[in-house]
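User: Here's a protein and a ligand (zinc ion). What would the complex look like?
Assistant: Let me lay out the input and then the predicted complex.
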Amino acid sequence: MTPVHTLWFDQALLPDGWARHVRLTIAAGRIAAIETGVDHAPGDERHVAAVPGLCNVHSHAFQRGMAGLAETRGPADDDFWTWREVMYRFLDRLTPGDVEAIAAQAYVEMLEGGFTRVGEFHYLHHTPDGRPYANPAELAERVAAAAEATGIGLTLLPVFYAHADFGGAPPKPGQRRFISDVDSFAGLVEGGRRAIAALPDANLGVAPHSLRAVTPDELQRVVALAPIGPIHIHVAEQVKEVEACLAWSGARPVAWLLDHHDVDHRWCLIHATHVDAAEVAAVANGGEVVGLCTVTEANLGDGVFPTADYLALGGRFGVGTDSNIAIDAAGELKMLEYAQRLTRRSRNILVAGEGGSVGSALFRGAIAGGAQALGGGHAGVSGGPGGLSVGAAADIVALDTEHPSLIGRSGDALLDGWIFAAAGGGVVDCVWRHGAKVVERGRHRHASAVARLYSAALRRLLAT
Ligand code: ZN
């Protein structure tokens, strides 16, 4: 028998706006019916305010374990490239068990913060000395196991990584756990497909790491391995990367990509930080999504994507926690707006029209773009149109309207209070993922057990 249950909310954010007295019927993990303007009925679980869960479009889960370990000044100017050296040293020690334990901790924190689906940009494939595991998809299976244990929706994006720089430069020793040729990568994609097969509404795509790490020929062949799934790529995160691309091809990275590929709605351009006006317009007018990871981009000193210009042209975006330096859905949205305020010396920028709520515009934008980026827009995949709609996965967040920053608010003001005024967290009360309640009173149901395994892994890793 299919389990059916009902949730009733005093108010809920539906695709066409806030509605009052909303009753959701959940069956087999999906929203089977939505009624508005109805009284609660016996058996309904009642809460005050519901919003859809957010998609985290870009995560490297294992990096949660090194969060905060690269904040010490080095001998010269520190930047993304010196951070990457710290990251390479950290990942050199990770066992499959460590990868699973760290990913589970990251996914618990994502769910507790309001993310219900993650796009795992999974590039750690091999043993520390660079050989394949006996099961080449061992680490993809560990990521899938972490998703299963925590309940988070998973879009697995196996990463193809072959070169250290433009022009097919040979990889560096620190990259040996990532490296594949296209044929062995095809096996990793198939292994990834098997790894997620038992997970509810999981999705599989591919991720050519960056234009630095793949040749044009490899990029064509890797993209062909995902005839329907999402395609994610890091692009234009660094000025040095833009300069190297210009030297190699005469074109900037985003322009090169758009010139050489049919970049459609299945593509998600991660970062796209350094783009000129023509590139901004071309991406905004295309069907793709930009994956913005502003907390990580701030932490790494990457730069600021011209979000205001892009949104004014109708561009779509999702948000991601990338390095997982701080896993905070509301914090990602806040930083998106604050980066614009700091550079433009103005306020309330990323919303169109007088009277519009910034928090609501950001939240709704991230819901729509995130669903597209992780679901590929295909029927039958979680996300679909995004939001609380009939047929969508029951990925629901109930807010604690007794939180000091939410008291006395309703509708869009709840989102503004959450995103801009609740720096300490604590706004997420309950989270349902695929219909199951995984977070209650702000705490994941397996948080303690997951934290114990994470703690043991980290103590050992950091003691060596
Ligand atoms: Zn990344």
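Summary: The longest strand covers residues 4-14.
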